[in-house]
């Protein structure tokens, strides 16, 4: 595959896996948790590096997942003690992110790990960091990691589809039916954490947040069915990857930034023209209703 092809494949995998997880995020009204976990996983990554002195491997995913779970637990702990949820999220993720930044500045040294890299990523380096896979040959490490995460996340969504659906729309009913709501919640937090760190090195926290929230929010405007929303959210993530890469090539600017911007453009288009919840459709229905009243 060509150099550009690997970059597009990496970005597409980010858009696809983030879109799947993001659809459940939007339905659960937990969009701000994506922001929180996408930043707080930095602490897990730094600690995993300090322990192993290696910047790649399963320990990075484990460290990030632990940081994501710690974020969810602390947010829930503060909220249960009277702190508003939005304030709890802000307090926890800024504190954990700040600890990660301090550790990078004081402990990491000359390793290829810095705050700018964490926020924006550098997807153009992806094709050069390869690993050999039997039957596939040399492929970028990020592509392999994202493929594994996509299979795991997709498998979990498929395996617990009904549970995700009920716990997302009506947690009280889910608890009454015997579905372990707390377990599903923390499993979901783990999925977000692993997804975030899988995309972290390639595209940075900014694009991870954009891909987790915006394509799913756009998909929500087009359908009321969870299965369709999952498919559309993943598709919009892939479309944003291709559109953003084309814009970055034309404008000679940041690839990750352009892809994040492309998600916003897709949301704006959906907000204007989607047939169910779009602005134009709402105005047409209001105009038709007004006409019926006059007649």
TrEMBL record:
Q: What is its main location?
A: membrane
Database matches in SUPFAM superfamilies: ABC transporter involved in vitamin B12 uptake, BtuC
UniProt KW keywords: Cell membrane, Membrane, Transmembrane, Transmembrane helix, Transport
Which subcellular locations apply to this protein? Answer: Cell membrane
Signal peptide region: none
Which positions, given as ranges, span the membrane? Answer: 6-27, 34-52, 58-78, 90-109, 143-161, 173-196, 202-222, 229-249, 255-273
**What is the recorded membrane topology of this protein?**
Multi-pass membrane protein
Highest taxon of the lineage: Bacteria
Pfam families membership: ABC-3
**PANTHER family in UniProt:** ABC-TRANSPORTER METAL-BINDING PROTEIN, METAL TRANSPORT SYSTEM MEMBRANE PROTEIN CT_070-RELATED
Protein name listed in UniProt: Mn2+/Zn2+ ABC transporter permease
Q: Which species does this protein come from?
A: Thermobacillus xylanilyticus
């Amino acid at each position: 595959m060509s150099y550009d092809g690997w970059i597009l494949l990496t970005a597409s995998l980010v858009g696809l896996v983030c879109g799947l997880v993001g659809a459940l995020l939007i339905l659960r009204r937990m969009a701000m948790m994506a922001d929180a976990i996408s930043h707080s996983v930095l602490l897990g990554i730094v600690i995993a590096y300090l322990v192993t002195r290696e910047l790649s491997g399963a320990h990075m995913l484990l460290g990030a997942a632990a940081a994501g779970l710690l974020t969810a637990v602390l947010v829930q702990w503060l909220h249960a003690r009277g702190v508003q949820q939005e304030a709890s999220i802000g307090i926890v993720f800024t504190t954990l992110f700040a600890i990660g930044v301090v550790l990078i500045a004081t402990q990491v040294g000359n390793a290829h790990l810095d705050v700018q890299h964490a926020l924006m990523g550098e997807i153009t380096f992806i094709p050069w960091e390869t690993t050999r896979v039997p039957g596939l040959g040399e492929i970028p490490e990020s592509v392999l990691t994202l493929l594994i995460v996509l299979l795991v996340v997709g498998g979990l969504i498929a395996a617990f589809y009904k549970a995700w659906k009920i716990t997302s729309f009506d947690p009280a009913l889910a608890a009454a039916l015997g579905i372990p709501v707390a377990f599903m919640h923390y499993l979901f937090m783990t999925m977000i954490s692993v997804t975030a760190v899988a995309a972290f090195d390639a595209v940075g926290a900014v694009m991870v947040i954009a891909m987790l929230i915006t394509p799913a929010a756009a998909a929500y405007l087009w359908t009321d069915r969870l299965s369709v929303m999952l498919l559309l959210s993943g598709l919009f993530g892939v479309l944003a990857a291709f559109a953003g890469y084309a814009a970055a090539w034309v404008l000679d600017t940041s690839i990750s930034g352009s892809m994040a911007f492309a998600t916003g453009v897709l949301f704006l288009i959906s907000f204007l023209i989607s047939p169910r919840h779009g602005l134009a459709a709402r105005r047409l229905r209001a105009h038709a209703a007004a006409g019926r009243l006059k007649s």
